[in-house]
Amino acid sequence: MGELQKQVRPPPPRPTAPVPGPPLPAQGGSRPAPPSPTAAQALRLYRRALHAIHAKPEEARGELRGMARAEMERGRGADRRNLQHVEYLLRRGWKQVQVLESPSVTSGSLSR
């Protein structure tokens, strides 16, 4: 009788290019991309407003914080490609923060 030979199949080839799909979540140790210069200015503006609000009487802080947040949310909806409008919103925000930093302001509207 003859010997039976086993047929050995080679393993399937491994893909060389990554498989397309959604991006994988960041692994530990990696840092998120830094904000754009415009986004960094907006964050600085918001932090400055919160700092100014902290110096106000405690009973007015909640209302002022809510108004500051509402202003930032309104600006979030701006078209990022329209740089003139974004710069206008930032200038207006800085003027509002200057008014808010005034010691005579204890409550009120931050808009227009």
Task: Please supply descriptive tags for the structure shown above.
112 residues; mainly alpha; 0% strand; elongated
Question: What's the helix and strand layout?
Answer:
Layout: H1 37-54, H2 58-76, H3 83-101
Task: Explain this structure.
With 112 residues, the protein is mainly α. It has a domain at 37-101. 50% of the residues lie in helices and 0% in strands. It is built from three helices and no strands. It has helices at residues 37-54, 58-76, 83-101. Helix 1 (37-54) packs antiparallel against helix 2 (58-76). The longest helix has 19 residues, at 58-76. The radius of gyration is 28 Å and the shape is elongated. It starts with 36 loop residues before the first helix and ends in an 11-residue tail after the last helix. 10% of the residues are buried. The model has no long low-confidence stretch (mean pLDDT 83).
- Apparent shape: elongated
Quote the distance from N terminus to C terminus: 99 Å
Series of secondary-structure elements, N-terminal to C-terminal: HHH
What is the arithmetic mean of pLDDT? 83
Number of helices: 3
* Major β-sheet profile: none
Structural class: mainly alpha
The tally of strands reads 0
Uncertain stretches of 5 or more adjacent residues? none
How large a portion of the residues is in β-strands, by DSSP E? under 5%
In short:
The chain has 112 residues and is an all-alpha fold. The chain is 50% helix and 0% strand.
